[in-house]
Design a protein that fits this description.
By secondary structure, the protein is α/β, with parallel strands linked by helices. The protein is built from 11 helices and 18 strands. It has helices at about 15-30, 65-70, 95-100, 120-130, 140-155, 185-200, 205-210, 240-245, 260-270, 285-295, 310-315; strands spanning about 40-45, 50-55, 80-85, 105-110, 135, 160-170, 170-175, 200-205, 225-230, 250-255, 275, 280, 285, 300-305, 320-330, 335-340, 355-360, 365-374. The strands form 4 sheets. The chain has a 9-stranded mixed sheet, sandwiched between helices. A 5-stranded mixed sheet has the order 2-1-3-4-5. A two-stranded antiparallel ribbon has the order 7-16. α3 links the parallel β3 and β4 (about 105-110). α3 packs parallel to α4. The N and C termini lie far apart (about 50 Å).
Length: about 375
């Protein structure tokens, strides 16, 4: 016997309130769940929360199951608010849609659907067939931001790539002598570390390793280090680099080509660095092949932090999805080092552009951020 209505169940006055709570819970899971999406779930009964949760790291329970366990018997007759469509297939965990039905939930409110071909509406149909009333699209924009990286990874089969650039007002990242610390201020650096805490991996080129010797760790209380990736086609990265010798729970991976010296590959491997050999394009690491490999390894989101040549190569290959440009109120002049290498544009209309850019002050600096359109 059917217990509820259909997917066209109307939105109610308080749906946005509880979905907003689910979004806040999903935010806690960002950077901790790949290759699963960050999801938040709230169970409400008689106007009160009886259970809530967010997705645990891969292999752990999904948000819906966490909320159901916390609610226990109180889940029967409750409404479930969840930012992402409940799964309907066996993966590392059983289907969440079945667990929702078994718990006696009478209504489910969903933020956004799952584009994964293994789901894509199956979770909603499972609920409807069991008589559960389903409402979709509540706070879709806010809920969608929590799973945007995952949905991109599923559809495009490569990580969602964020290119971060920090430059002077005239687009320079260092003086002519190479001095670059620090162009931006403390607030901007805190923002970068918060982003490192959320993404799966961070990438730099060999020029950045040689010039700045970065650690690429997350210096935020309670944060965690992302996977650290270096693009180094000739293995110029020194064994004394901090990315080699610094202790971190996150691995360091160097992507190179078959032209790299075998002795250096072995030395890096002995030092604990994973060296992967990829195809070469014009003597450089094939970045598209690198992205495919990372996607296959479950890297859903990738932050690229430099340098200018790697940034330009990614833009030329149309592999950047979002640009975050931090601008400091300083001028370094024409002899300073540019933030971007050559894009090889023939027409102004070919230039990559930001879509719906936002401006956010970070101390004395300004963050300009937006999606990249080609």
């Amino acid at each position: 016997m059917r217990r509820g209505g259909s997917r066209k169940s109307p939105e109610r006055a308080d749906d946005a309130l509880w979905m907003r709570r689910a979004v806040a819970l999903a935010e806690r899971a960002l950077g901790r769940t790949s290759p699963n999406p960050a999801v938040g779930a709230v169970l409400v009964k008689a106007g009160r929360i009886v259970g809530e949760g967010w997705t645990r790291p891969a292999g752990g329970p999904h948000a819906e199951v966490v909320a159901l366990r916390r609610a226990g018997a109180r889940a029967r007759g409750a409404t479930l608010y969840v930012t992402f469509e409940p799964c309907a297939h066996f993966g590392r965990t059983p289907p969440c849609a079945d667990a929702v039905v078994a718990a006696g939930v009478v209504r489910v409110v969903v933020g956004v659907g799952d584009p994964n071909p293994r789901v894509r509406g199956r979770g909603l149909r499972t609920l409807e067939r069991a008589g559960v009333a389903v409402t979709t699209g509540v706070l879709a924009a806010e809920a969608g931001r929590m799973s945007a990286w995952f949905r991109h990874w599923v559809v495009r089969r490569r990580p969602f790539v964020i290119l971060k650039l920090a430059a002077s007002l005239d687009g320079r990242i260092a003086t002519a002598a190479g001095a670059s610390r620090w162009i931006t201020g403390a607030a901007a650096r805190r923002w970068v570390h918060e982003l490192r805490n959320r993404v799966d991996a961070v990438m730099v080129g060999s020029e950045t390793v040689l010039a700045d010797d970065p650690a690429l760790t997350c210096r935020r209380r309670g944060g965690r280090d992302p996977l650290r990736i270096v693009i180094d086609g000739r293995l110029r990265m020194p064994l004394a680099a901090r990315l080699v010798r610094q202790r971190s729970a996150a691995a360091t991976v160097v992507a190179t080509t078959a032209a790299a010296p075998l002795r250096k590959r072995r030395a890096l491997g002995a030092a604990g660095v994973e060296v992967i050999v990829l195809p070469a394009v014009a003597g450089k690491v094939d970045l598209a092949a690198c992205m495919r490999l990372l996607a296959a390894r479950g890297v859903v989101s990738l932050l690229v932090e430099g340098g200018g040549e790697l940034a330009a190569a990614l833009l030329r290959a149309r592999l950047v999805d979002r640009l975050a440009l931090l601008t400091a109120p300083v001028l370094l002049g024409g002899d300073g080092r540019p933030m971007l290498g050559a894009l090889r544009l023939r027409r102004l209309g070919d230039a990559p552009r930001l879509v719906r850019p936002t401006l956010v002050p970070l101390g004395p600096d300004v963050l300009r951020e937006g999606s990249v359109a080609y």
